[in-house]
Each structure stands twice: as structure tokens, then as C-alpha cells.
Amino acid sequence: MLRSRGRRAVAAAAALLGLATAVVVAQSSGPTRSHAADRSLTVATWNMCGVRQWNCADTGSRAVKQRELRRLATRAGGRVIFLQEACTGDVEAVRRALGPSWHTAFRLYRVGDRAGHVDTVPCAGAGQGSAGIAILAGYPLSSVTPVPAPQPTVGLRRGILCASVTAHQVRLCTAHLSPAGSDRAHPGWEFRDDQLKALVAAVPARRTVYGGDLNVNPPGGGNSASWVWPSAPYSSHRECDGPPGSARSTHVSGHKLDYLFTGLPKTRCALRDTGASDHLALVMRVRTD
Q1: DSSP bridge pairs for 130
Q2: Is pLDDT at 12 greater than 50 in this prediction?
Q3: Using alpha carbons only, how large is the chain's radius of gyration in Å?
Q4: Which CATH number fits domain 2-287: 3.30.420.40, 3.40.50.880, 3.60.10.10, 3.90.230.10?
Q5: Could you please report the per-residue DSSP string of 49-82?
Q6: Shortest CA distance to 92 belongs to which of 55, 60, 50, 57?
Q7: What confidence score (pLDDT) does residue 221 get?
């Protein structure tokens, strides 16, 4: 893609930095309970707006966010929850509260400066840890893998994280993509096209659920960024809300930024206003038989 040329080599190399150290997996050593006999799986995605210094100070306290995350797992039935703008302290606290059958995988955000230094993003507040994307699951997670994709050279590097739930033979991938202007050294560079391609390439044709905060509107409908979308998400796979024209907004700005795609039969799709973020949570149930 001509619009991406000229930054691929540098940005792709930057994306590979720290892959081995940026992922934290917490697997319980206690007994696990299998829900695979249900032959269905409920997956949710939620941008928690948990990094208070990112204009999130007015979206709810740490205790409120943890409560709403627990409710996604209990009242909303989410057995797998994709999280963005999450803090390690919050995710770990909820994992412990939910019990020994719950597990997490966490990929830290990285931020690069003009001098070439790359650091993690600390969350404000004692015990909050660092910021990133996560998978919280009521099953053991296997084959936990960060997916390399081009990232900004100067600015925030978000990411893609995949894991498998053997009980349902499903591959799960969550992503937080780079909105336009993310690279402060090269504000005209577009990353979402290559990041979406990397995300789609990481999932199987059918037994998958993937998505997250993709920071782009659905294709069509006058969306000038429609070109960043590959064909597979709306052809080989199905989105929770259905075709692009039926998509509901998931952000306070009125845009749809949050997605769940699957190659499995979809039986339910719902939006949930947690009252503790500038994003709504998206909840989808699929059949896994």
C-alpha cells in the first residue's frame, strides 16, 4: 500500500522490541472448571479507560472499574474478556476475586521517545502497576502470543495479543490499534491497515473470536479510512453487530470503535454501559460445537 511505504522497515523493527518481555501470564494453580459442555462461549471486549492520566480521571474510581469488570464476568456471563487501557493491578485484583478458575494474559504498552528510549506506561495510583491490553478468561490460556505489527517510532505502541482456550478449541486475539497521528515523529503515517492485516493473519478461518478497540469506524458510509480494512472481517468472519451499516456506536463520541469478529455461529450480541468508561462493553455469545 503506497500510503504505508517508507516506514515499514523501521516501524516493524520497533514493533518487535520487547515482545519476549512485554507479556505477563497469570495461570492459577488451583482447580479449573470446564464450561465446554455448554457448547457456547461468551466473549466481551471493554476499553476500561483505566489509565487515569489519559483523560480517564472522571470515568470512575479503581473500585468502580473493578466492580464493573467483575460484573462483565458474572452478570453479563463473559467467560473471556478482552481489555484495553487496563492496569495490571486492576486486572490481577479481579482475577483473584473471581476465583482459581480464572486466568489472565497481559501485554504492556510501550512508549518510544525521539532519543530511541522505550518504556512501559505506569498507571497513576499506588498498586496500579502498568498499562496495557489483557485477556481475562475463566479457562486456562495456552499458546499466549504477542503478534508483531508495525507501531509508531515516537509515541505509544499498543499491540495485539492472542491465546487459545483448549476447552472450546478457540483462538482468541485482542487488539488495540493506533489511531491516525499516533507517531509524533511522522504524524502522516497510517498503521491501522498493517495492524489489521496482522490481526487477521493471526486467527484461524473459523474457530476464532477476535477484536478489541480498533480505533476506526466500520468500512463504508463515507468513512475516509475504509481503505485500512482487509476483506476478511466482514466476509470470512462476522462482526457482533452484523454488517457495517448496522453497527452501533461504542464510544461517547458516537463512533463505533470496539469490535468482536468470529468465524463461529453467533447467537447473541449486546452492548453494556458500565458507567465506568468512555467506551461501552460489547458482549457476544457464539456456539462452539
Answers
A1: 122
A2: no
A3: 18
A4: 3.60.10.10
A5: ---TTTTTTTS--HHHHHHHHHHHHTTS--SEEE
A6: 50
A7: 83
Report the SS3 class of residue 172.
Answer: strand
Q: Do 165 and 139 form a contact (C-beta atoms < 8 A)?
A: yes
Backbone phi, psi, residue 250, to 5°: -120, 5
Sign, Cα dihedral of 252, 254, 257, 262: positive
Q: What is the pTM of this model?
A: 0.92
> Mean pLDDT score of the chain, rounded to an integer?
91
pLDDT digits (tens, 9 = 90+) for 158-192: 999 999 999 999 999 999 999 999 999 999 999 99
* C-alpha distances out from residue 119 to 22, 122, 248, Å: 10, 9, 35
Which pLDDT score, from 0 to 100, does residue 29 have? 57
Can you tell me the distance from the alpha carbon of 157 to that of 287, in angstroms, rounded to the nearest whole number? Answer: 34
Query: What is the secondary structure of 253-267 as a DSSP string?
Result: TS---EEEEESSPEE
Task: Give 212-231 as a DSSP string.
Answer: EE--SPPSSTT-TTGGG--S
DSSP state of 3: G
Phi and psi, residue 119, nearest 5°: -130, 165
CA dist 26 and 193 (Å) reads 31
Q: Helix (H, G, I), strand (E, B), or coil: what is residue 106?
A: strand
- Over residues 67-110, the pLDDT tens digits come to 999 999 999 999 999 999 999 999 999 999 999 999 999 999 99
What are the cell numbers at 269? 450480541
Lowest mean pLDDT among 84-93, 121-130, 206-215: 121-130
Residue type, 200: V
Contacts of residue 221, Cβ cutoff 8 Å, sequence gap at least 6: 244, 245
